[in-house]
Each structure stands twice: as C-alpha cells, then as structure tokens.
Amino acid sequence: MRFLAILLIITLMCPLVIGTSVPGGEDKNPDDSEVPFSIIERTAPSVDGEKWNFEIRIDDDAYANGTILSITTQVCTNDGVCDPPVTHESVAEGQNYAISITPPSDHTYVNWRVHAEYENGDGENFPQGDWFKTWSSCWNNEKVWGGIDSTEDGCKSAGGESSLPGFVLPTVLVSIAMAIVYARRN
C-alpha cells in the first residue's frame, strides 16, 4: 500500500514538473518535412474572445493516397486549467482543411494537433504524444506575464489583475493527505 501511495504522489506531481518546462511565448510549429500537410493560415497570437483561424493543406501525395486529416484543439487558461481536447469536424475543400474557434478570456495558448487517417485504416498524430502551440496575446508562464497585450501584472484587457494559479498547491496537499490516510487504513 505504501508503494501505491508513493506512486499516487509521484503521478500527481508529474504534471507540475512537466508543465514548468514550456518556454513562454514561443509558438511550437511543425517542421514541414515531417508532416503530411502545410499551414496555410494560423492566427498568431491568439486573442481572447476573437476568432482563431487555422487552415492546413494536405500534401499532394497524401491526398492522392486517400489520407484524411482531422484537427484537434485544446485551450489552456492563465490560471493553469486546460479544457478537454476537442476534435473538430472540418470538411475538406479540395486539399484544404479549416477550422475556427473563439478562445475564452484569459487564455494562455491554443494547443493543436492533426490526425492523419490513411486509406488502409491506420492513423497517426502530428505531433505524436504532444501538441503544437499558439500562444495568446497575453499569457502567464511560471509567474511571468508576456505577449503584446500584457503588463507586468497581468493582461491589459483584464484591468491589470493577475490570475495566477492559486488552486494547485491546495489540490496537491489534499491529494497527498488522502493518499496517506488511504495507506494507513490498509
């Protein structure tokens, strides 16, 4: 049972450690030589409450082979919360796939990925196990504000109020306490 408690604690702490290694404000884009598509349009930076437009074009070879693309997004906010991923139904116009979403206020970035489904039924994500990323015009990363709409203390549109993640530490502490209580009961 102690092993289970330790494993639970490590599992809860991993996102905190992993999440802090992202360089703030640096969009992550695909290398065109490693993906079966190219970006036609991508709104950068993304702006609170304004349409984020994204359009890609499938490569000629992939298109000729019957490959179909789908686009998934995930929006994360400055308080450290990410919405669940959403796979968008985008109808291909020829070789182009386009979507448009409206990020909420106080968002940090828009994560996005492309899934290629091949004619034989196999599929592949680009990137695999990660996300490409478009940062917002006002973001918070490791308690540092950045972007064209930021101030030293927050976002211009938010009246300068900072919205740092204050719920993370109490959540982790409660989880640790629950793991200890569970381990002692067993």
Name the descriptors:
alpha+beta, Immunoglobulin-like, five-stranded antiparallel sheet, three-stranded antiparallel sheet, globular
Care to describe what's here?
By secondary structure, the chain is of the alpha+beta class. It has a single domain, classed as Sandwich (Immunoglobulin-like), CATH 2.60.40. Helix content is 22%, strand content 33%. The protein has three helices and twelve strands; from the N terminus they run H-E-E-H-E-E-E-E-E-E-E-E-E-E-H. Strands 3, 4, 6, 7 and 8 form a five-stranded antiparallel β-sheet that branches. A three-stranded antiparallel β-sheet has the order 1-2-5. A two-stranded antiparallel ribbon has the order 9-10. A hairpin with a 2-residue loop joins strand 9 and strand 10. Helix 1 packs antiparallel against helix 3. The longest helix has 18 residues. The radius of gyration is 20 Å and the shape is globular. The protein starts with a helix and ends with a helix. About 9% of the residues have low confidence.
**Beta fraction:** 25-35%
Alpha-carbon distance between the termini?
7 Å
Return the structural class.
alpha+beta
CATH architectural arrangement: Sandwich
Order of helices and strands: HEEHEEEEEEEEEEH
User: Biggest sheet, open or closed, and with what strands and sense?
Assistant: 5 strands, antiparallel
Q: What helical percentage do the residues reach?
A: 10-25%
Output mean pLDDT. 83
Rg, alpha carbons: 20 Å
Please, how many helices? 3
What are the segments in which pLDDT stays under 50 over at least 5 consecutive residues?
Answer: 14-20, 158-167
Which CATH first-tier class would you pick? Answer: Mainly Beta
